[in-house]
Amino acid sequence: MDFFQKLLNIVLLPLSLTAILFLLAPFLFLKYLFSLKRNICSENVADKVVLITGASSGIGEHIAYEYARRGAVLALVARREDRLRIVANKARELGSPEVIVIRADVSKDEECKQFVNKTVNHFGRLDHLVNNAGVVRVDFFEDSTDIASIMDINFWGSVYSTHYAVPHLRKSKGKIVVISSVAAWLCTPRLSFYSASKAAQICFFESLRAEFGPDIGITIVTPGVIESEITQGQFLPKVEMPWMPIEPTERCAKAIVDSTCKGDMYLTKPSWIRVGFWMRVLCPEVFEWCLHSMLVIRPRTHQNKDR
């Protein structure tokens, strides 16, 4: 067994790279053909029921508007009911036949159960679940407080919502949209817990995709820096990335709904950020050097505290 392991360590990587070189061109051609087919057979979401968490602002708000333009009926979930009602009114103006508003906190298991049940009881079905609710806190690891809440909302919130939605999505052959982040692999200072929560989210839903098979489609979205309440003000300077361009929210939301309707497995927006992912996989040392050379690293100020 040891010999076999050593043999695999020596020959498997060069053989795999050689196979990739030979198969890459036909693979890309087939991928292009399948992409054309998905564009032609894109799902019509008119009158379908879409539940969106974190719909009071940012990406979630504009995803609601994009679904509304396509005639979907909406269940909008967030903690700020006043903001949800504003979003709901605009969604109706844009073409959604019916919109309901549900105030809830996704970090609470029982509240997730309630808003899924309210949606299904009201509309009689559920076709798409958009796990968008999330928070970000920018801080050095040593200064971090209330650590658990980031994981509770970003990771467990999507787990709870999905757990209660799955039986209904199976019936409708529905879809799950996971709004994660490039921070899952583009790890920068002051975002350690946010990055960890998003990485956990991706791994969890990739496992679910293997479990569900064709019963439920899962589209995992990894946006870069998108225009929203989170990224306004001092966000980019705080995370040491003042050079990062900001993607308009409307364009990102349209791309997300397009990819979901086509049944894409992954979407990265803007697409140029994928270059960084492949650099990280193939040349981690080069990726690390490039990332550190672009970051404006400021030393943490240590303060002596009386104990």
Globally, the shape reads globular
Give the helices and strands as they follow along the chain: HEHEHEHEHEHEHHEHH
On the 0 to 100 scale, the average pLDDT is 85
Q: Termini, distance in Å?
A: 56 Å
Poorly predicted regions are 301-307
**What structural class results from the helix and strand content?**
alpha/beta
Rg is 21 Å
Portion in helices: 40-55%
Roughly what fraction of the amino acids lie in strands? Answer: 5-15%
Give the total of beta strands: 7
For the largest beta-sheet, the strand count, sense and barrel status come to: 7 strands, parallel
Work out the helix count: 10
Adjacency order of strands in the biggest sheet: 3-2-1-4-5-6-7
Topology:
Elements: H1 2-40, E1 49-53, H2 58-69, E2 73-78, H3 81-94, E3 99-103, H4 109-123, E4 128-131, H5 147-172, E5 175-179, H6 192-212, E6 217-223, H7 235-238, H8 249-262, E7 266-269, H9 274-282, H10 284-294
Parallel strand pairs: 1-2, 1-4, 2-3, 4-5, 5-6, 6-7
Helix pairs in contact: 2-3, 2-8, 4-5, 5-6, 9-10
